[in-house]
Fold this sequence. Notes:
Layout: H1 2-19, H2 26-38, E1 41-42, H3 43-50, H4 54-66, E2 70-74, E3 82-86, H5 88-108, H6 114-132
Antiparallel strand pairs: 1-3, 2-3
Helix pairs in contact: 1-5, 2-3, 2-5, 3-4
Amino acid sequence: MCITSRSSKLxxxxxxDALAPMGINRSAWMALYYIDQQxxxxxxxxADLIGIxxxxxxxxxxxxxxxxxxxxxxxxxxxxxxxxxxxxxxxxLLARSIPLAEAFRQQVTAGIPQADLDTLDRVMDQxxxxxxxx
Length: 134
């Protein structure tokens, strides 16, 4: 298990370095990415996707909102839920950062056959599913 912890920390640090020219960190980038993928997402669901706590998500959402990268609206179905969407500025920043993310992915997977990467995805998905049942 040490390898997963060490690699996660290393990848997070190096991805932060790769995103630095955009003025954004990994957690904020992941938030923009998942909001874009979902079009409109509840703040709690976004925290679950990113794998962070509610208070950490609040900090990210507040900063992204202050930077006019996302909008936050109260759900009509559940007044406690906050729905997040990208603003045009958020869409633009995400679009400009995708090449950096793609270059990072290519660098860290260089020399690894696609079949091995597919196996790694399946193994990690199963390990996460197993851990979620604990």
